[in-house]
Amino acid sequence: MRRRLPSLNALRAFEASARTLSFTAAAAELNVTQGAISRHVRALEAEIGVALFVRSVRRIDLTHEGHVLFRGVRSALDQLEQSVGRVDRRTAGGVLTISALPTFAMNWLMPRLEDFSQTNPAIEVHLLTGIGAVDFSREDTDLAIRVGTLGDGDAPANSARIDLKMTERQEGWRAHRLMADELVPVGTARVMRGVNSPADLLTRRLLHMATRANAWADYLGATGIPHEVANEGPRFGHYFMVIEAARRGDGIAVVPKVLVEDDLASGRLVTLQGDPVPSAGAYYLLCREHQWQLPVIKAFRTWISGQAKLYATARP
Q1: Looking at the domain covering 8-87, what would its CATH class be?
Q2: CATH fold match for the domains 92-180+281-314 and 181-277
Q3: CB-hemisphere CA count at 13 Å for 207?
Q4: I need a surface site. Which of 202, 261, 272, 273 has the fewest CB within 10 A?
Q5: Cα dist from 258 to 9, 31, 57, 103, 123, whole Å
Q6: What is the pLDDT of residues 88-126, one digit of tens each?
Q7: Contact 47, 6 (CB under 8 A)
Q8: In whole angstroms, what is the distance from residue 279 CA to residue 219 CA?
């Protein structure tokens, strides 16, 4: 039986426009003119006999019928892309774009990334950095590494708060846990001399992270120290900045242990004896739901999972 379907180009133009709510953005994504997108959408509306968008001077919105069609078309295109990926050998290689947290990328991922390139020479990694919530519907990113929670309520007792949002949307993506987010206080041997307990930390200058303002209070609170006394001291916008300040001897920082493993191993920074304080979150590898099983995605997911396990077993 002959299928009664609109053209694939019209459906792609509609899906991109509905997802971005912008004919201009859809045109840029599909590498065509805005006029071409508008013509495809109008042709689709004429063919099925309903308006799909409410058009105003500066924006577009989906009609009820547009919402219904968008859900179906997006699902169909996702399945089509996944099916093609499963049989197209070329998807085992190509460019893989990864967005990672800046200090995690610098201190943990980059020192290991050459190993992935050596074992997967057909895959070219493009590594970007970002701290904001990833939006897979708008960003040209295949994978993201973020720290946060999945909202399942499975946080350790006395864990440090983590108020970071990993994704902009609640659906359409999957997460794979890489490692725990555990906080340790670090400073140079000179600064840490005489610091033998969490209470002794309060005799030193404390360095803070702007995006995790509760870190010191929660760390000290988990060790039984009143947290109200932990709010003073300079603040920094990135972990690589607060870690560098600690390296320079400017004070003591409380940071995720995964970010300072090399510093601790080399003695450039030292920490207190005892267990780190876990946060309520963890580091996750994030991906679009429909691309989870693509060969290039699966190759990186398998590799980084192995690296995370090696890291966990090698820790003291």
Answers
A1: mainly alpha
A2: yes
A3: 26
A4: 273
A5: 46, 41, 49, 10, 26
A6: 544 556 889 999 999 999 999 999 999 999 999 999 999
A7: yes
A8: 9
List Cβ neighbours of 118 (8 Å cut-off, separation of 6 or more).
Answer: none
Name the band, by pLDDT with cuts 50, 70 and 90, for residue 230. Answer: low
pTM: 0.73
3-state secondary structure (DSSP) of residue 43: helix
> Minimal CA–CA distance to 284: which of 167, 185, 129?
167
Token representation of residue 132 = 């904001």
Tell which residue, 97, 173, 166, has the closest CA to residue 132.
166
Render 208-239 in DSSP notation, one character per residue: EEGGGTTHHHHHHHHTT--GGGG--S-EESSH
| 181-277 homologous superfamily | Periplasmic binding protein-like II (3.40.190.10)
- Quickly name the fold that domain 92-180+281-314 has: D-Maltodextrin-Binding Protein; domain 2 (3.40.190)
Two structure tokens written together for 264: 């601790």
